[in-house]
Amino acid sequence: MTTAMGAALRRIQLGNALSAFGNGFTVPYLYVYVAEVRHLGASTAGAVLAMLAISALVVLPLTGRAIDRRGPLPVAVVGTVSAAVGSLGIGLSSTEPAVIASAVALGAGIAVIQPALATMIVWCSTTATRSRAFATQFFLNNLGLGIGGLVGGQLVDTTHASSFVRLFAIEAVMFLVLGAAIATVRLPRAPKVEDAVPTEERAKGAWRAMFGDRRMVWLCVLGFVLFFACYGQFESGLAAYATEVTRIAPATLGIALAANTAAIVVAQFVVLKLVERRRRSRVMALVGLIWTVAWMAAGLSGLVHGSQVVATVLLISTYALFGIGESLLSPTVSPLVADLAPASLIGQYNSAFALVKQMALAVGPAVGALMIGHGMHVAYIAMLIVCAVGISVLALRLGRMLSPAQDQPHRAVTLPPQRVEAEPVAAGV
Q: Contact 325/293 with Cβ under 8 angstroms?
């Protein structure tokens, strides 16, 4: 069983890494491609980015039910086909309706893939190995995106649309490679889901059951703040602050983003050894403290007017600190979602948390861009410092709701069975 689980997990991780590699080819250039290369204008480019988010918000509430009824594998395959069609469609589109329709297919496909893959990883891991499995997925995602972005930058030529068609075609092929890889996976019955044979009755009352789990509701609130205060600011508020207030060059902003990726790649497995035996709630609280320092550094970078070098170092440090925080979260949050879920609702819980993330990624950039655009620089930094402190407070409060096995699974694994069973479980499920 362990060998089968390991082989299935490796295939899933490899396909996921190749998909991220393909995604890296297009992510940095989508806006420029639609607005300037295809000459469809900034408003159409904005609509394309909005459709990626909106389509995800539409399909995610339905995705969990499909996963729990049919299993994650067929849902993931459908997602990869939709994403491939959407990606290739964007590359071939020269009109506004076509590119927006393609963006809908791409956004929906990516949204479906995420919780389906998360559920497959849960099925192919145990409580003791789950943190490492999710940390590996996060590491490979970032490595793939980074390498794909670097290679794509060498192939792209803004004067020739054909170079972008090539990029989107590569991305589409990588989505199909992911689909082929997971289609051949033979999912084992991991202990967490050993009784979870898909049935038509599985999803009845799923949302009601999930909202009745106050630990999951609290984790979703914490997740929204986490994603709003970090990922939701990368491409809008923080980037605008860096260029308009800190006044760094766009090329330097690229170095800052590279520092974020480098921090994740270098720190991930070092961090994993430090945190996988510690309480998840305290690790998340530590992330809040690290990001508080990161936002303070960002604020200071806008106040240092006499030395551009110091300001630039502070801004790059902000991105690097975010990367360290992200590497702490990857082996912590997603495994906790899985461990909170009843066996028959793992897909529902994963999809709900993905929906929370998508909502934060939709709201965060809008709020950040609006505040910086209206000159509310100090209020912007202050808001995000409050969010970062709030992450620590919310995480510690969540820790008091979790059972020892949920908050510190490695400790629970090493305890005698009678002691684990005797531990109190927080009410509210």
A: no
pLDDT at residue 189 in the model? 53
Measured from the Cβ of residue 294, the count of other Cβ atoms closer than 10 Å reads: 26
Backbone angles phi, psi at 245, to 5 degrees: -105, -55
Phi-psi region of 15 (alpha: psi -120 to 50; beta: other; left: phi over 0): alpha
**Arithmetic mean of pLDDT over the chain:** 83
Confidence of residue 277 (pLDDT cuts 50, 70, 90): confident
Cα separation of 233 and 2, whole Å?
40
Largest CA distance in the chain: 69
User: What's the predicted TM-score (pTM) here?
Assistant: 0.79
Q: Which position has the token pair 């799923």?
A: 206
The first and second tokens of residue 240, run together, are 């605008």
Eight-state DSSP code of residue 37: I
Three-state SS for 184?
Answer: coil
How far apart are the C-alpha atoms of 145 and 137, rounded to whole Å?
Answer: 12
**Cα gap 242→318, rounded to integer Å:** 10
Give the span between the Cα atoms of 287 and 18, in whole angstroms. Answer: 29
pLDDT of 378 higher than 90: yes
Please enumerate in sequence order all residues whose Cβ is within 8 A of that of 299, keeping only pairs 6 or more positions apart, or say none: 378, 381, 385
| Cα-based angle 295, 297, 300 (whole degrees, multiple of 5) | 110
| Cβ count within 10 A of residue 68 | 28
Span 340-363, average pLDDT: 87
In the chain, the amino acid numbered 52 is: L
Output the pLDDT for position 250: 67
In the block, which residue shows the tokens 């071939």?
92
d(CA 91, CA 51): 16
Q: Residue 412: its pLDDT value, please? A: 58
Burial group, residue 160, by CB count within 10 angstroms (0-12, 13-18, 19+): exposed
- pLDDT-derived band at 4, boundaries 50, 70, 90: low
DSSP H helical ranges for 192-236: 206-211, 214-229, 231-234
